[in-house]
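Backbone geometry:
***
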Amino acid sequence: MQFEILGPLRVIDAVPVRIDGQRRRILLVALLAHPNGVVATQALVDWLWPRRPPRSAQATLHAYVSTLRRALEPHRAPRCPSTCLLTQPTGYLLRVEDDELDALRFERLATDAKPALDAGDAERAYQLATEALALWRGAALADAAHVDAARGAITRLEELRLTATTVRIEASFALRRHLELVPELTGLVARYPLHERFYVLLMLALSRCGRRADALAVYRRARAVLARELHVGPGRALQLTEAAILAGEIE
């Protein structure tokens, strides 16, 4: 069985498995956000009813768990215990193999990409980061995007996605693929206007494509955004990149 949470929830067991109801979907997302770990009953209540849980919250949660078990194990005999969604003294645990959950595969690939880049293997770093990023189909934990309890898990995955994106771009630079990076970096600068590293990389890509004036315009834009939003000047990396472009030192 395959579980996907890097976008809207999807469950596939040869064919798509239907998970009906928003709260049942959120429940499964909450369990998948903590694979192979016990998620406390109260934590799940917070996921399902972020503002005011009903008095019957725990009983309703138990009913949702039973429904999920039937969806995930349709051939399990009545009265036989579940082998994947387990009741624990303090909550529930969903057993998931590393290759069954897209988030676990993504983390493994993304975590391996940075050491490969640091070791000078740009091709392997590029392949690992590209494979990791290809697993994303939208926003992380999209079904629970409005749930406060989900923010920590969402932020962690999005930060790792940002790191993997940076590694892939750095690897592309090492492989001299500057031209193809300009459109992507332009979009990343717009999406992450306070992320100085993307400004630096866009300046380098433009300069290496012979667009020196455009590269310097990016520096001015970064300086203006940082001053307006954070009341700070450009960081050292931005300053050094501008100086190198002005001196004609970028090859």
